[in-house]
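My main concern about presentation is that the manuscript never shows what a single data entry looks like. An entry of this sort, consisting of the sequence and the corresponding backbone structure tokens, reads as follows:
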Amino acid sequence: MQYSVKGSELMKVLNVKVIGTGERTLVLSHGFGTDQSLWQTIFPCFLNDFKVVLYDLMCSGSVNPDYFDMKRYSNFDAYVDDLFVILDELKVEECVYVGHSMSAMIGCIASVRRPALFQKLVLLGASPRYLNDAGYEGGFGQEDIKQLLSAMESNFTAWVSGFAPLAVGVDAPAAISEFRRTLLNMKPEIAVFVGRTVFESDWRAILGRVQAPCYIIQSKEDVVVPLAVAEYLRTHLGGETWVEIIPTKGHLPQLSTPALVIQALKGSIFSSENQANCSTNTYKGITV
């Protein structure tokens, strides 16, 4: 059975939480295969300065799968609609938005549709396209994606066991175990469907229309998103853009090296809109 949900009911379905005492709003949005628990060691650092909004994407394993409509969530626009419902229900007029992985592009699309809502975007492990193309290094060939999706379909549990340590990228058993847990919380058919939606997506055409200041945070080595993608974003996003390469490996540094992520987030969130944080790793460009 599949349920439809609108308005205030969506707040319960997506497990929306608002925590903190600040006047401004900070939205933390997770990526594929995780849920809002991804931010559990991150968000406490911002509670004095912000009201922090946490929620689960509709595809998350923490959300009742009966609410997941494959037709509706066949691209990122439905996730953007959900984000707008949350912000409107909370009467948010402007926010700082932090999006990890697929949620980075969700934030970019949202900022094009309703630019006044977004003071700045912080894009962590972001990619507008995962497939390689002429003059573009996305990190995956067509055959790579085909094999990945086939492995997910044939034995999801076995695929998770192999993909979790690969994505985490460092010897961090607790982080690998946590990512494995949230992946396995997903209904396999939903995971495969969303995986296909993410890995076959191409949002490059929208980048030039993103006018909000963007702060890109990227691991030095990431099996999912190569460094070339961060540079592509820097040169193609429409507004002012800065990149910080953090000295770690993996696609989920929030789990494996949270202190580095907190430091990078503070540098981007608290920096002015006209000047990037002046550390040795952060400027309008890329250093390694």
Notes: The beta strands are 17-19, 24-29, 50-54, 95-100, 118-124, 214-221, 241-249, 282-283. Residues 273-288 have pLDDT under 50 and may be disordered. The first strand starts at residue 17 and ends at 19.
